[in-house]
Amino acid sequence: MSNDSNRANALAALIILVCVGAAFYFLPTIVLSIGQFSPGLAVFVGSLVVVAFFAIFWIRSRYQKR
To answer: Which residues, 6 or more positions from 20, have their beta carbon under 8 angstroms from its beta carbon?
Structure first.
C-alpha cells in the first residue's frame, strides 16, 4: 500500500467515526423526541443507528476486498 492510500483510508475512517460519533451524541435527544409520538418508532430509530455503525464498516470491508 502506498502512503496515499493509507492517508485516504485514515481520512475515510475519521469521517465515518466523526459522523457516527455525532449520531451517537444526539441519539438520546432524537429518540426521546420521537418517543413522545411513538415509542416503537423511537426503538426502531435507535436500533437503526446502532446497526448502521457496524454496517458501515462491514460494507467498507467488503468494498476494499475487491
So the answer is: 52, 53, 56
pLDDT, one tens digit per residue, over 16-46 is: 889 989 999 999 999 999 999 999 999 999 9
Of 51, 53, 46, the C-alpha closest to 31 is: 46
- pLDDT at position 2: 67
DSSP 29-51: HHHHHHHTT-HHHHHHHHHHHHH
- The CA-based angle 2-59-42, given to 5 degrees, is 135
d(CA 44, CA 31): 9
